[in-house]
Amino acid sequence: MLALPELHRRWLAALEPELPAALALRRRVHADPHLSGAEGPTAEAVQEALDLPLEPVAQTGRWGRVGPAEGPSVLLRAELDALPVTEETSVSWAASTGLMHACGHDVHLAALVAATRAAAYLDLPLGLVPLLQPREETYPSGAQDVIAAGLLTDQRVSAAIGAHVHPRVPPGQVATGAGVVNAASDEIEIVLTGDGGHGAYPHHAADPVSALGHIVLGLPEVVRRTVSPMHPATISVGHVQAGEASANVLPSQARLLATMRTTDPRDRTAIQEQVRQLADHQARAFGVSAAVQVMDGEPVLFNDPDLVERVDTWLERTGVVPTEPMRSLGADDFSFYGEHVPSVMCFVGVRVAGHEDDPPALHHPRFLPVDEAVGDVARALIAGYLAAVNLAGDQEERD
Predict the structure, then answer these.
(1) Please, which pLDDT band fits residue 192 given cuts at 50, 70 and 90?
(2) In sequence order, what are the beta bridge partners of 296?
């Protein structure tokens, strides 16, 4: 068995000749994006590039294994799905279907392929499980379905590693950080029902629009009154709809959709209850009824402290600078894996072509990391695998 420093050296050397094909795959995937639940063509393209037998999981997902066929393994995750965003870049391989890999999933997939192919002929101490995960961007969560399918148990996964490009991390650096790095995410739907009528005779109607307006303004107040200012949390309303496009018709129904982000499980429960009370009381005040539905999303994304320490060590050996943690109220269903095994999400700093000084955010129609991001993400995944091997060895010694 190779010593880990020698394995690291050989793996990085084997990675370099894999990068040109990985860049071509990145362009192919980027030009042909597919939404959550319909990622089959993307999975097929990636499997072809991997040149590795893969098994289906979570409907459109795929997984494989290299290295030892038995015993513990390390899961490396990349996401398959794109977003309903119309691309506004000028590259020749831009998507033209009203969909876009605006969150960097094309980069992650190409990096996973490069890292896995580079490892195929190395003497790995633990199995490496590349996972092409569907439905990261929507519900039901692809990660939950992967776990429910028994992949972590069947493959004896000892740790899970993810890497995500991020324009707010300095290029050439990687942010890990122990503890909470992303928020729990839930979706709220509030539907108000009353009696519609004529805008000239509001006293003969029960108007849900006015009630909805007060609820929209009251939701941020729920957070302020419920959660300590020392605990990051927010509610943002993303959609409001009522009736048809008519100025003098009072509709009988109004609806809003909001996202709720929390970093403490107790705050999550308390805010949900207060949202229900706000909607009910405001509805009663306006003579309408309220139906509130809270759709549980991802839990808090928690980076295992022991694994983070080891990941940072291997990043430094790679020549990458570990930087300050990138904590935010963003969410990622990678967090579900952390409820079962030690996990780390690495945020990889990237440059965005044409926007060096003020890069567009994730999900922006002009978010397009430069080519070097593929290699940077691949090296972060390799560091994560080696860190997981260290952690498994240390735990075995303690046992």
Answers:
(1) very high
(2) 186
